[in-house]
Amino acid sequence: METLYLQTTQLIQETTDLFHKLDNEPDGEKIEIAIQSKINAISANCEKLDVMVFKTPINQRPMAKMRVDQLKYDNRHIQASLNNAQNKRRRREQEKAEREQLLSRRFGHDHTAITVDYLAQEQNSLHNSHRNVDEMLHTGSNILDTLRYNRETLKGAHRRLIDLANTLGLSNATISLIERRVSQDKYVLFGGMLVTLAVIVLVIIYLV
């Protein structure tokens, strides 16, 4: 299990390095395909690790489960980042095509043709604004999904820490300290969710 865990961790690191290349690559579609391939490999490894967790000794199982859950969370975050990068690339390509279309357009000499062209430009601008808002909402949705998943992970980690503490025979004071820390993390999580919702509402009010 340890070998597969290290291999999966290495895949996550390689995927992160690919994201750095993606930022400096004008046409990053090939890099996006490579990232998606590694994400799929990480998901497959996590499924195998889930099976291996139940084969570990009982006293080691909570910690092993926590490590696998962290890999799943990292992979989920990477997938959301890839989706955002793909949306940005498609938006850049569409904006470039629209600019080229506007530059290649021949304007007529009569007032009617010029008016139609202005209306078309205005319609394109409105369309771009709506698309940007949709992408912001999609990004906010991904962030909320990640926060919800993180909340579930924290709950699971809390339960496993308590079980582990009971197994190791830790004192009640130590267990109480762990519970307070988890409660503080919960408030931070809820605060982040509220801030994200507020940003989405403000975007909808001022941009739509």
Concise description?
The protein is an all-alpha fold and about 210 residues long. About 90% of the residues lie in helices and about 0% in strands.
Protein model, in words:
This protein is mainly α and 208 residues long. Helices cover 89% and strands 0% of the residues. The protein is built from five helices and no strands. It has helices spanning 2-23, 29-53, 61-104, 111-168, 172-207. Helix 1 (2-23) runs antiparallel to helix 2 (29-53) and helix 3 packs antiparallel against helix 4. The model is unreliable at 107-114 (pLDDT under 50).
Average of per-residue pLDDT values: 77
Q: How would the global form be characterised?
A: flat
From N to C, what is the helix and strand string? Answer: HHHHH
SS-derived structural category: mainly alpha
Q: How many separate helices? A: 5
Radius of gyration: 24 Å
Beta-strand content bin: under 5%
Beta strand count: 0
Poorly predicted residue ranges: 107-114
Biggest beta sheet summary: none
Which SSEs are present, and which pair or pack?
Blueprint: H1 2-23, H2 29-53, H3 61-104, H4 111-168, H5 172-207
Helix pairs in contact: 1-2, 1-3, 2-3, 3-4, 4-5
